[in-house]
Here is the input.
Amino acid sequence: MWSPRILETTRLITGFATKPSGDNYLEAMKSQKRFPFLFAGAALLGMWAAASPALAQQPDPQQPPPPKTDPPSSSEKNNKDKKQDEPPGGTVGKSKLEKETGTVNDRIFEVLPNYGTVENANALPPLSTGQKFRIATASVFDWGAYPFNGALSAIAQARNDPKEWGQGWDAYGKRFGANFADNSIGTYMTVAVFPSLFREDPRYYQMGKGGFWRRSYHAVNRLFVTRTDSGATHFNYSESIGNAAAAALSNLYHVPSDRTASRNATTFAFLIVYDGLANGMKEFWPDIRRKVFRKNTP
Here is the structure.
């Protein structure tokens, strides 16, 4: 027997207002079987409609935090500090002394030391007294200074000068010591001692450009005019007084017959001429290096 609830459901789904019979009965049964599925679909549709506003109001998912970058290593910090500490200038050498002083030891003919030379720069921070003595020490005890003094001693040996020392290895050793002392004392006096007293800049600033005679004049002129620590220019007291002091001190180790005014004047002149030739080589060596040795950098 049909219950009132089933009849009402049948009427709503199939449109039959009375008890179904025959074909209508079969159709009603099919509709009754579809009812659970229709009900489930309607329930799901209602749940989705109710949940949609809530989903729409949810905040966007939180963005992942940016990846953490590792702090710079100590070596990177040291390299950055070194670059900041380096003085402004042009070509600078690789050693600590060269970087601190803005110079480059561009060895002349790949052998002779060339400390205190400034390439491609017009102005640098002043040198401290310690830096001036370090440049002098590097020049005096550079390995290239030993064959140079050895060659001068060989020439003196061949001339038997002075005669009191005679010949033999013992005499050659004395001549080597005298030449080494002459050049070393002269270097310390003109690069460190008197530049510190007179506050002069002992570095050689290359002109680098211009004609041969103009640059040659610049090299010779540096013997008489130099820069000061403040950036001005004045007479090169260190060159003249320093070499005169070196010539006077040489009387302590030269033979008695050489302790004369003429020999002191000769030593003084030799040191001045030597420094002038050194300035000329410092000025033109980069050109020789590029054109003869095909090297654009030291």
Remarks:
- Residues 4-57 form one domain.
- The CA atoms of residues 31 and 199 lie 114 Å apart.
- Residues 1-7, 12-20, 49-61, 82-87 have pLDDT under 50 and may be disordered.
- DSSP finds ten helices and four strands in the chain.
